[in-house]
Amino acid sequence: MASTSQLRQDLSQRQLSMIALGGVIGAGLFVGSGVVIARTGPASFLTYAICGVLIILVMRMLGEMATANPSTGSFADYATTALGGWAGFSVGWLYWYFWVIVVGFEAVAGGKVLNYWVHAPLWLLSLCLMLLMTATNLFSVSSFGEFEFWFAGIKVAAIVIFLGLGTAFVAGLWPGRHLDLSNMSAHGGFLPKGVGAVFAAVVVVIFSMVGAEVVTIAAAESRDPELAIARATRSVVARIVVFFVGSVLLLVLITPWNSLDPGASPYVAALKHIGLAGADQIMNAVVLTAVLSCLNSGLYTSSRMLFVLAGRHEAPAVLVRLSRRGVPAIAILCSSVVGFLCVLMAWLSPKTVFLFLLNSSGAVILFVYLLIALSQIVLRRRTPPQQLRVKMWLFPVLSILTAAGIVAVLVQMAFDDAARSQLWLSLLSWVVVLAVYAGMPRARRDSVARKQFSD
């Protein structure tokens, strides 16, 4: 085990570009969009547009801070500098907690997808996926980047092909077809569940877009992090508009919204409606790729956040040690073990412990996004103009509106029967993290704060 704690800058711009491009595309889009369409009707693409605007603004704020000061633990570092040690500690541990639960959840989801072809115990398939992605992350950061490059490439290709086929079908360029937009109003109208349903579904959609920010962490392990972050931040608008809003709009144009099964992928239904043979096999393979991509990114992101927390003396010091290949091996293994424990709970206690873990991390990412927004508002006033390669638009108005938008989503969760438990249990998770911070020796907290401010 190497003693140095300097991560290698082995990620290429090619890998980072594809991580940025495909990072937001996951099973939440390929499968979860069916739930959103069932709740909102043809207007569901408006829900994706609203959430997309929020994610774009958060990414712009994060991009501004990350280009001015690239850091592997960007969220935690910026929150500490702007708001204090409690905020950095909260961001670091909450973000780690969110992603290790995602790792366990995606491993279970991947096992279920594999069950489509391989008849074996779910826990065994999930374990195999965990071992595969853990080995990938342990080998080198470039192997993580290469796997993610191809995973993201398959997801992007699938969406692009669907957009091409769907547009041709709707526009009447398909054999035996003519321009047909009737599905937007023929089955109960454009807003069959009312305007309120468009905003109520925001809670579901926002979590399907999580992952855009991972590139700002990965960029610190590239040779030109400022360039990578600037590119990713500027391209996020096109990615959200095309991949999410565009594809969901095509889904409701191709198939009647009330004919979709919320538990199945609406993309399969749309491709079958178009007449593409073997659509279920193709989309199942794409969903598996999306799950593996998320699992791969989850292990990478959670291990890097543990590495940063250890470097800030807010986690055991052994986690900062690197292997001979330049990766934080112990941090990767610790995150992998927690992920596998989640898989174990999904097998032994799916309705209690596993459900509690999922709910207790559900709103955590919104707390992190809120602290990112508040950090940007504070740090913008402290940063020299020449360091701002990427600037938040219409500062401070849009920054304040972004923070208010995140709070509005949290308030919406409090009034949503399906999401209320996630909000309160996630708040409990934050309270536990703050209690641990308050219990840290005062001298350690002060030294961490002094180190961060001196940096």
UniProtKB/TrEMBL annotation:
Residue ranges occupied by any Amino acid permease/ SLC12A domain in the UniProt entry: 16-437
Superkingdom assignment: Bacteria
Phylogenetic lineage: Bacteria, Bacillati, Actinomycetota, Actinomycetes, Mycobacteriales
Matches recorded under Gene3D superfamilies: Amino acid/polyamine transporter I
Transmembrane segments: 16-39, 45-63, 75-96, 116-139, 151-174, 194-215, 236-254, 274-295, 329-348, 354-372, 393-415, 421-440
Tagged with keyword Membrane: yes
InterPro entries per record: AA-permease/SLC12A_dom (IPR004841), Amino_acid_permease_CS (IPR004840)
GO-annotated biological processes: amino acid transport; transmembrane transport
Entry similarity comment: Belongs to the amino acid-polyamine-organocation (APC) superfamily. Amino acid transporter (AAT) (TC 2.A.3.1) family.
Organism field: Mycobacterium asiaticum
Cellular component aspect of the GO annotation: membrane
Compartments where located: Membrane
UniProt KW tRNA-binding keyword: no
Protein name: GABA permease
Record membrane topology: Multi-pass membrane protein
Keywords for the protein's UniProt record, in alphabetical order: Amino-acid transport, Membrane, Transmembrane, Transmembrane helix, Transport
